[in-house]
Design goal:
By secondary structure, the protein is mainly alpha-helical. It is built from 20 helices and no strands. The protein has one domain: Amino acid/polyamine transporter I. Helix 15 packs across helix 17. The N terminus and C terminus are likely disordered.
């Protein structure tokens, strides 16, 4: 039965269910529109030229497919930290932890990425925050700590503080990109730019694919934030699919129009001989540089302001998201129990503080925006990949579940979604994948240590058979990437053959995983436990 639009009174220690459709959509859209909109068009154009438009369409289509898969899971199984819980219910602890760990790595690193981006933009008006090499200075590190502390405080104060703060920033974050598109299209549009510098696709298909993990996927990802807080929605069955799908459509359309406006507004002389430096020696404000060159000073000022607000707003959201994921990992018994404790305000206090501390640690080895983007994109792809395989297994093991939204042609689209996620990992390249592989190995080692020190009667289900596909999948993708054409790969696999290899390998893993999933009775028990925990757990969200 669908929940009432009015949240029921909350018992002590339970999640507060007071998030409506608008707030759900805004929290996903607020995650999609962050620093990526200010940097994505320039980065994509440098890698793919005008064919970057295809990169945005392809990236948006791939992520939209994964969003539709998440929409069914989120509406049928509305739980906080859902990306960690879906695979747990159907494959057991190893798969659940691996998905949750990838999701947590992605979420906990985005807040510091966005802080770095915000300060890098702000450095244009307040010099001394970032060095000439785009690395945080000592003053910048102090400012980073202050911003992270502010995000943490808002999250600690509770769901409604987070929701209302996000509402204000999301309205701004949508308005400024739309305004930028309109002004640039009318102020300066050179249609010849779309065939300049070597033609529409100067770097061929390779450039189109390479642009995806270099900024496109990073920009459009984020729709899953509504899924992560599903346990706090007023009416998740009705609102979850609408929020996820609506945020994806709006976000992708905005990014595509921004790329069109960016390419059209460029000086033809800057791209006549190539796309390596379309706006000259760049900074962190390509749109502001264009506006200044066109004499539109007021727009440049707005863009510099937005270049701080947009990343800061996304960072605010991800402090909350990462805390909900560590909360879910704690509830499933993967991490020490303190992370799933709830404060009197109904928020996972220790998980929020953990996100704050780990976020600060990321500033040390990754002191610039660019140094983290590839890692985040690949971690996101691993997190997303668990959704289609979980959907296929849950359709098989829990066929009678009420599904307010059903993915059409799931027998085709779910495997295709898994292949798409693996392609994103592959296109990120070996230089990124080996680092992510190391992080995943460290996570599994942490899982093993946690299990060793947890009392036997409190250990979560570890079903080796159901999770037997996980490590071969990750290892196989690392090997294919090492032999592939992207990001430091050895180019053993020829162009196009590499994509066929990824597709065949992914389909084999998908069908093996579904076949190995837990028996229906075990799945029913785990689903019941997860639902009970979600109803009797902390409250983590954004009021509607």
């Amino acid at each position: 039965m669908a929940q009432s639009a009015v949240a029921a009174p909350r018992a002590a220690g339970q999640l507060r269910r007071d998030v409506g459709l608008t707030a759900l959509m805004f929290i996903s859209l607020g995650s999609i529109i962050g620093s990526g909109w200010l940097l994505g068009a320039l980065t994509a154009a440098q890698i793919a030229g005008p064919a970057s438009l295809i990169s945005w369409i392809l990236g948006g289509s791939v992520i939209a497919l994964l969003a539709l898969i998440h929409a069914e899971l989120g509406s049928a199984y509305p739980m906080s930290g859902g990306t960690a819980r879906f695979p747990h219910m159907v494959f057991g602890s190893i798969a659940g932890f691996t998905a949750g760990w990838a999701a947590w790595l992605q979420a906990v690193s985005i807040a510091p990425i966005e802080v770095e981006a915000a300060l890098s933009y702000l450095n244009n008006k307040v010099p001394g925050l970032v060095s000439s090499k785009d690395i945080l200075t000592q003053r910048g590190l102090v400012a980073s700590v202050i911003l992270m502390a502010a995000f943490t405080f808002i999250n600690v104060m509770g769901v409604r503080w987070l929701a209302e703060s996000n509402r204000v920033t999301v309205v701004w974050k949508i308005a400024i990109p739309v305004l930028t598109v309109i002004v640039l299209l009318f102020a300066s549009f050179h249609s010849s730019n779309f065939s300049a510098g070597g033609g529409f696709a100067p770097y061929g298909v390779h450039g189109i694919f390479a642009a995806l993990p270099a900024g496109v996927v990073f920009a459009v990802q984020g729709f899953e934030q509504a899924i992560q807080i599903g346990g706090e929605a007023k009416n998740p069955a009705r609102d979850m699919p609408r929020a996820v799908i609506g945020a994806m459509i709006i976000g992708t359309l905005i990014y595509l129009l921004l790329e069109v406006a960016f390419i059209g507004a460029l000086s033809p002389g800057n791209v006549a001989h190539g796309w390596s430096s379309p706006i000259g020696k760049g900074d962190f404000g390509p749109y502001a540089t264009l506006a200044t060159g066109l004499g539109i000073g007021w727009l440049a000022t707005l863009l510099y302001v937005d270049a701080f607000i947009s990343p800061a707003g996304t960072g605010l959201i991800y402090i909350g998201t990462s805390s909900r994921l560590s909360y879910a990992l704690g509830r499933n018994g993967y991490l020490p129990g303190a992370v799933d404790k709830v404060s009197k305000r109904g928020v996972p206090f220790f998980s929020i503080i953990l996100a704050f501390i780990v976020g600060l640690i990321f500033f040390l080895p990754f002191p610039s925006w660019q140094s983290l983007v590839g890692l985040v994109t690949s971690a996101t792809a691993i997190m997303y990949a668990f959704a289609p395989v979980s959907l296929g297994a849950l359709r098989r093991s829990d066929p009678d579940r009420e599904r307010p939204y059903r993915l059409p042609y799931a027998a085709v689209l779910a495997p295709l979604g898994f292949v798409s996620a693996d392609l994103i990992i592959y296109w990120a390249g070996w230089e990124v994948v080996w680092k992510l592989s190391l992080a995943m190995v460290l996570g599994l080692a942490l899982f093993g240590v946690s299990m060793a020190f947890r009392p036997r009667d409190k250990r979560p289900l570890v079903d080796w058979k159901a999770s037997a596909w996980v490590i071969p999948w990750l290892g196989g993708m690392a090997l294919i990437t090492f032999l592939g054409q992207y990001g430091g790969g050895r180019s053993v696999l020829p162009e196009w053959i590499d994509l066929i290899v990824v597709a065949i390998f992914s389909l084999a893993v998908f069908y093996v995983a579904v076949a190995l999933s837990l028996p229906a009775q075990t799945v029913a028990t785990l689903v019941s436990v997860e639902e009970r925990q979600s109803e009797q757990a902390p409250e983590l969200t954004t009021a509607g």
